[in-house]
Amino acid sequence: MSTVLIVEDEARITSFLTKGLKAAGFVPKVADTGRDAIEMALLGDIDIILLDVGLPDIDGFQVLEQLRGQGVTTPVIMLTARASVADRVAGLEGGADDYLPKPFSFDELVARIRLRLRPREAPAADPGVLEHRDLALDIRTRRMRVEGQWVDLSAREFALAEVFMRHPGQVLSREQLLANVWGLDFDPGSNVVDVYVSYLRGKLGKERLETVRGVGYRLV
Ligand code: CA
């Protein structure tokens, strides 16, 4: 099931969308400020974002700009009452995938969501290789291509690289990495995650794995 993040401050609209999307088989989540939306989108597990322009803190265009600036590639459909050509152009140039002026019909919204989700749900041409920008991770040989050169990874480095490559642009917490790479559902109080991130940085280049202070790490 696909998770839809609804970014909208009007309770009447979020309640209508939440009910409708659940009935249509989606998992809706709601953010009622721009900052909450950015936080939720960065933490991942969102398949598509419905983004209202008018929000109480920062507007939808600023939210979009920050998300794209931080490497979040989740499809975004902008929703706005301001059905002007200028808004439409700003939304698409800012990295929105689609644009829907209010009032819209719910059926049309669902059709647009399905259209934007489809390419991501299609299986990759070669599922044995995960690619992100100029990085590629070969699942079978457990090697990573960095700027055209294949480098060998240890078993743990490979497992860590795989988690990052499956969630590019998302902030992964130490807890998530411990669970996925080491199978631990608790923090053993060691700095094992940081140590392995530094090993991986040594092979991929330091700048590719960004430290998000107090939260975790992100593949940029
Ligand atoms: Ca609004």
UniProtKB/TrEMBL annotation:
Residue spans binding DNA: 127-220
The OmpR/PhoB-type domain, residue ranges: 127-220
Coiled coil: none
Ranges where the Response regulatory domain occurs: 3-117
Residues bearing PTM 4-aspartylphosphate: 52
CDD domains registered for this protein in UniProt: trans_reg_C
InterPro entries: CheY-like_superfamily, OmpR/PhoB-type_DNA-bd, Sig_transdc_resp-reg_receiver, WalR-like, WH-like_DNA-bd_sf
Pfam family, one: Response_reg
Example GO molecular function: DNA binding
Keywords noted in UniProt: DNA-binding, Phosphoprotein
PANTHER family per record: REGULATOR OF RPOS, TWO-COMPONENT RESPONSE REGULATOR
Name of the featured protein: DNA-binding response regulator
Organism expressing this protein natively: Actinomyces ruminis
